[in-house]
Design goal:
This is N-acetylmuramoyl-L-alanine amidase. The protein is built from 8 helices and 26 strands. The protein is an alpha+beta fold. The strands form 8 sheets. Strands 1-7-6-9-5-10 form a 6-stranded mixed β-sheet, with helices on both faces. The structure holds zinc ion.
Length: 477
C-alpha cells in the first residue's frame, strides 16, 4: 500500500532526511536524536533520550530476553499483526549502544499516558523505519488507514517514540499512518481501531480515558529547553479528537453546575465539522492550506479578531520564521479539543485563559458562530503557584540528583523551560507522580532499573503542551 500523496520524490527526500540524522546528539545529559532544521513532523523518527551512563554498575536485574515474536495485545476482535521492532547491539565494543527500544517490566503502576502520533510516511516505509535499528526509533502500535493494526513492541517494554524520556518510560505509543497536513488519511476505520485500542489500553493499564492522559505528540514538552521548541506537532490540528473519544466509547463527563471555591475553568470543545479554518502550510513552498475542519481554537494576545496571535518563547527561539502567524505547526497559539484551562478573565464573547505564564484570549465561538467552549466536569482540579515566588516549569519529572547518586549513576539534571508562573495564575492539574527515571543502558537487558525518589511532580496543562512543576511550589495539590 502506498499513499497517493507521498510521491517517490517526497519519499526520497524523507529517506534522506532520516538517513542523515545524527546519532545521539548532545542535549546535555538527555541525549537523543536531533531533527535539525526539519520543520516537518517526522513522527517515525521521534527522538529518544539516551539513558545515563553508569558510574559503577548497579546490581543486575535480569529481564527476559527480547522475544523473536510475541502474542498481540489488544481487545478481542481487533485484528493485530505482530512485526517486532529491532532489538540489537549496534556496536559490539560498546554494550551501551543498542536499538530500538528498552526492555522493561512495566505494568499499570508505570504507565499513565497513551501518545498518538502520525507517521508522515506510508505503511511500508514506517515498518521499514521501525524495524531498522539505525533509526533508533520504535513504537508499540501502527494503525493503517483501513483500520488494520500492527504491534511492534510489547507494552511492558519502553518504545522510543516520544522525544522525551519521562513520556517514553510512562506511555504506550500509537502511530497512525497519515500526514498531519492531509487529514483525508485519518479515516473512519482508523479512528474506530484507534478508539478500540485506546479503550483497551486504558482499562488494562488503569489510564484515565481523558485528554489529560490521551495525548498527541504535539501535547508533550521537550525534556530540555533546547529540545522543547523543536518538539513534533503530530497528529496536528486536523486530527478529530472528539471522534477518537467517541470510538473509544468514552463516557460523557457530567458538567459542573455553579462555581466551586477553585478557579473557574473552561474546556476547549469546538464542533469539528463547523470549526473550519485555513492555515499556512509548514511544508516549504506549499503556501496556504485550504479551509478545513479542525480540533483547535486560536489563542490571541487580546480579545479581538485582529489581535496578534500568541507567540511561544521556546518556539520563537527554535523556529522564529513560523511563530506569531497562523502556520499549522505553530503549537504556541493553538489549544485543542478536550483541553482544560483556568479562566483569568472574560470579555464579551472572549475567554481569557492562563497559558504559558500569561493571559491568552480564546474566542468562545467558532468561525460559523457555534459555541466552541464548555464548562468542564467538577472533577477538574486547578493549582496555583505559591505566593511570592516565580515558579519554575520543567519538561520532565526525573528524581533529584541524590537518587541518581545513590544508585551509582551520573545524575540527569533538569533545566527549566522558558516560562515563569506567578501566584495570581492558575493551571489545570493533569496528574501527580513521583520522580522517576528508567535506566536501561545495556543491550543484554541485565541493567533495567527504576531510579525513584519522593519528589512530587504535578503535570499541568501549560499550553498546547503539558509541563511539570514541583508540587512543593504549588497551592491546591
Ligand atoms: Zn510523533
Amino acid at each position: 500500500m502506498c499513499l497517493p500523496d507521498i510521491t517517490p520524490a517526497r519519499r526520497d527526500e524523507r529517506d534522506e532526511l532520516l538517513a542523515s540524522l545524527t546519532r545521539r546528539s548532545a542535549l546535555g545529559g538527555l541525549g537523543g536524536l536531533a531533527l535539525a532544521g526539519l520543520a516537518l513532523p517526522l513522527g517515525a523518527a521521534a527522538a529518544h533520550a539516551a539513558p545515563a551512563k553508569p558510574r559503577t554498575p548497579s546490581a543486575p536485574a535480569p529481564l527476559s530476553p527480547p522475544p523473536g515474536t510475541f502474542a498481540p495485545e489488544g481487545p478481542a476482535g481487533l485484528d493485530i499483526e505482530v512485526i517486532p521492532s529491532a532489538y540489537q547491539s549496534m556496536n559490539p565494543a560498546d554494550p551501551d549502544d543498542y536499538a530500538s527500544y528498552s526492555l522493561a517490566e512495566r505494568g499499570p503502576a508505570d504507565i499513565d499516558a497513551i501518545i498518538i502520533h502520525d507517521t508522515e510516511t506510508d505503511y511500508d516505509l514506517a515498518i521499514e523505519i521501525f524495524t531498522n535499528p539505525a533509526y533508533y526509533a520504535s513504537i508499540h502500535y501502527v494503525i493503517r488507514e483501513d483500520g488494520r493494526v500492527t504491534q511492534m513492541v510489547r507494552n511492558q517494554d519502553i518504545a522510543w517514540h516520544a522525544g522525551n524520556w519521562t513520556f517514553n518510560q510512562s506511555s504506550i505509543g500509537i502511530e497512525l499512518i497519515g500526514v498531519a497536513e492531509e487529514p483525508e488519511h485519518y479515516t473512519d476505520a482508523q479512528y474506530e481501531s484507534a478508539g478500540r485500542l485506546v479503550a483497551y489500553l486504558c482499562e488494562r493499564y488503569e489510564v484515565p480515558l481523558d485528554r489529560d492522559h490521551i495525548l498527541g505528540h504535539e501535547n508533550l514538552p521537550g525534556a530540555s529547553p533546547a529540545s522543547h521548541g523543536k518538539m513534533h506537532w503530530d497528529p496536528g490540528a486536523y486530527y478529530d479528537w472528539e471522534k477518537l473519544f467517541a470510538a473509544a466509547d468514552a463516557p460523557a463527563a457530567p458538567l459542573r453546575s455553579g462555581r466551586s471555591g477553585k478557579a473557574e475553568t473552561v474546556r476547549i470543545a469546538p464542533a469539528y465539522e463547523s470549526n473550519v479554518r485555513d492555515f499556512l502550510s509548514c511544508d516549504p513552498g506549499e503556501g496556504r492550506l485550504p479551509a478545513r475542519p479542525t480540533s483547535v481554537l486560536m489563542v490571541r494576545t487580546a480579545p479581538r479578531d485582529d489581535a496578534p496571535l500568541l507567540t511561544d518563547p521556546a518556539l520563537a527561539a527554535a523556529k522564529p520564521a513560523i511563530t506569531g502567524q497562523d502556520y499549522i505547526c505553530d503549537w504556541g497559539n493553538q489549544v485543542s479539543w478536550g483541553q482544560t484551562f483556568a479562566v483569568a478573565d472574560r470579555v464579551d464573547g472572549w475567554c481569557g485563559i492562563w497559558i504559558s505564564g500569561r493571559i491568552g484570549w480564546v474566542k468562545e465561538t467558532d468561525p460559523s458562530g457555534a459555541s466552541a467552549i464548555e464548562v468542564p466536569p467538577p472533577s477538574v482540579k486547578t493549582v496555583r503557584p505559591k505566593k511570592n515566588r516565580a515558579v519554575k516549569v520543567y519538561g520532565a519529572s526525573f528524581p533529584g540528583e541524590q537518587a541518581f547518586r545513590a544508585a551509582g549513576l551520573e545524575p540527569v539534571v533538569l533545566a527549566p523551560l522558558p516560562y515563569s508562573l506567578t501566584d495570581e495564575q492558575a493551571y489545570v492539574l493533569q496528574d501527580v507522580s513521583q520522580g522517576a527515571y528508567y535506566w536501561s543502558p545495556r543491550f543484554d537487558g541485565t541493567h533495567g532499573q527504576w531510579v525513584r525518589d519522593d519528589t512530587s511532580w504535578a503535570r499541568i496543562q501549560l499550553n498546547q503542551r503539558s509541563a511539570f512543576v514541583k508540587t512543593s511550589d504549588l497551592r491546591g495539590v
